[in-house]
């Protein structure tokens, strides 16, 4: 049961990481609004890395941003957050695979593999939170500029890339939580070679040890 839980969490995390990759390279984080336009023959949409324009005839032209330092601060921050999310997601996939119960790594104990899976799940959660912060910050700025009556620039609306980012963040966080919950430590079983001892104190403070009964398989011996 725990293995299936781990595999499901890893699968959700991998899907979330793939969506994060698509979201980072998407060119439609925001789309030009046509609320006050008479005709809608032209479309303009922008992403983190370039801006694109399309016409009703099917032609589309994309151009990278000419400057990096001249971009608004929130766009540069969103770029950094998405790159961090991708790196954390890649590391979490590798660590989570090594922490699966079906993965054999030398003589690694179950407790050690549980800690590895917990680390992978935590990295997935951090990756999802980083993506969620980036897309939510970007969306807040788009909404703020759209409703600002004193904004003189081009008004944009939320694009498909933002919705993709929200979905990726939810899947990554859900997969990380499932991986973290799958490494519950079970009760430790004492391994004393078939013998266990208990003791009791007498009135004089002396300790009396008594050996408990052992199983027949551990105590039976054949004599010739």
TrEMBL record:
* Entries under Gene3D superfamilies matching the protein: 1.20.140.150
Q: Which GO terms describe its cellular component?
A: bicellular tight junction; plasma membrane
Q: Supply one GO molecular-function term.
A: structural molecule activity
InterPro entries named among the record's database cross-references: Claudin, Claudin_CS, PMP22/EMP/MP20/Claudin
Specify the signal sequence span: 1-16
Family to which the UniProt record says this protein belongs: Belongs to the claudin family.
Superkingdom to which the source organism belongs: Eukaryota
Q: Which Pfam families match?
A: PMP22_Claudin
Question: Where can this protein be found?
Answer: Cell junction, Tight junction; Cell membrane
The protein's topology relative to the membrane is: Multi-pass membrane protein
**Keyword Iron attributed:** no
Role summary: Claudins function as major constituents of the tight junction complexes that regulate the permeability of epithelia.
- Transmembrane regions: 80-100, 121-140, 160-181
What is the name of this protein?
Answer: Claudin
Record key words, sorted: Cell junction, Cell membrane, Membrane, Signal, Tight junction, Transmembrane, Transmembrane helix
